[in-house]
Every structure is written in C-alpha cells, then in structure tokens.
Amino acid sequence: MTDTAPTAPLDGWTKAPFTGGGFTYDCYEKGSGPGVVLIPEIPGITPQVLGLADHLVAQGFTVVVPSPFGQPGRAASTGYILKTVARLCVASEFRAFAAGAHRPITDYLRAVASDLAARTPGRGVGVIGMCFTGGFALAVAVDDSVAASVLSQPAAPFPIGRARQMDPTMSPGEFDRVAERASAGEVCAIGLRFSEDSSVPRARFATIADRLGDAFEVIELDSSTGNPDGFARGAHSVLTNEVREHPQNSAYRARERVVEFLRDRLNAEH
Q: What total of structural domains would you count in the chain?
C-alpha cells in the first residue's frame, strides 16, 4: 500500500529516434509481448508516466513511449506544465483548439503503432492517450494495426464552447473510419474520466459513444465532494497521479481494467 502515485526512472528503457508522418521524435521502448503505445500526458514523460509504463511492462507488454513534448524523466511542476501548455497551444501538429480537425501528430503516432505491430505478437497493438493526448489514442485507431484504444481524461481540443466539448479529437472522415472499424469488431475503446473534471466534458464521451456503441466502455470515477477515495474535485490523471497501490483505490481498479482490456483485445497471455 502506498500514499503516492507509482513512479519509475528511465533506467532500462531503450531510446531511439523514430520518423513517421513527417516528424521525428525519440521513442522509449521496454518489455516483451504484445505492443502498447503509451502517449505521455502534459508535461511529458514524467516519473508517474514511467510508473504506468513499467507497470504495463511487468504485465507482459512491449511498451513504446513516444516523446513529442517535454523532457523525459523530469518531474512535473507548475512552471514546467505551463511552459509545455504554451508550446502545445501554438504547435500546428497538435491543433489544441481546433474542432473537427485532423491533427498531424496522429500521423506520426499511427506510424509508431504500425511499426510496433509488425514486430510484436498479438492481433494488433493497444494505444493509450492521457490528458491532452487522450483523444489521440482513438484517432490513431484509423490505422488497421490498432485493436484497442484507451482514452484517459481526453482534454483536447480544449473544451471552450459546446462544439469543442463535443469534439472527438479527430476529423469527421477519421471518425467515420474508426466507427466503421468498431462496427466490424476490429477495434474497441475505453474512456476514463473523473466525474468533476471540467477539462474532460461528458459531452465528448457522449459523442464517441453515439458512434461506437458497445465498442466504447466508459469508466467514470467519483470525484464529488465526500467521495470514498478522497479524490479532490480537481482530480484529473486517472492512470497516473491518482493511482495508489491498493485495490480499494478506484484509480487502481481502473488501471487493472485497462490491463485486462488490453490483454483481451491483443490476445495477450495472462
């Protein structure tokens, strides 16, 4: 049992540049077994993101963590977060405020997923996005290599106005393709959010559920006043900052559900 979120260092991770979709970023890889692409949350590959990554490795997955922003291994701080957000707000590859838009960074992430699928066992790969990158995990599922998407607190586009609140973080054509693949049983998705997290509006999950139906599972954790876990109303990071290593913690249980989902979808051995 712990009182803080799991963390880990960069030790044991293999770093190599990867080029795809017109971009080149470093990727960190570790593990063996079916592949999972873990897209970091703001401000980057923090010790908490590495804690989740190492947990997935221990559960029998080959994990690749791209580094499209931030300084890998650096702990989060208010200044670091604000500096990263400022950069993402103006970066054309992320299109932080655009509704109904294709985001060029997802071309890169699709290339990462396709490469990982070609050299790991299982029927495709899983993709996990968190916070600003949460919705990217579903946009990447346009690629046939992706069998499972996990959207943890998807906060892009920033939910200013009703259109952005309802936006699924991809273009209509991409959304059509993902829905088509979901209808055919080729991809399924999980969405996770805290009940009081205004940066991740329920309307976004409603938009996705309307198109994906039973292929989209929603997990909402209670962060209302007086909730059993003691989560603050501002709780945000379901799979990293709010996890405590004991089964009574609902974020812990959500993380275990994600592992089970990935195993089932990728045909990984338990």
A: 1
